Amino acid sequence: MSERVAKRPTLFTVPPAPSTETKLRGARCSSGHLFFPPQQIGCEVCGLYGDEIEIIELDASGTLQSFALSHRQQRPGSTAPLIIGTVALDAGPALEVVLDVDDTAGLSCGQRVAGHLVDVGEDESSRRIVDCFFAPTEPAEPAG
Ligand SMILES: [Zn+2]
Asked: How far, in Å, is the centroid of ligand 1 from the Cα of 23?
């Protein structure tokens, strides 16, 4: 099994293969504010920084708030359009994610989604590059 490397190593964890589970790396200030991604400048809410900021792992699960088609390529060899969503994490912060679905038919706002690791290529040392994509964990609400 070849080594895996995160496409954005500061943003999510990569467990030993073949697990596709991941946690997001967020931050918490000593006043208890959570934010993602961690910022060098410190807490977005109260401005604490340095030793007052702790890097923590956030569950990669939440609620889909919005989604949109993009015409960028999702991964090498794929012809599927890229679908971008905004997810409100259960931990609080909201973030933009790539949705690991072929089209928007199975998506609805308010749907439960979770992040997992997806192979997106290989680096110059033949390590597999993985990224964190999100996908629904429940069926979409019927359109109405
Ligand atoms: Zn704060």
From this structure: 21
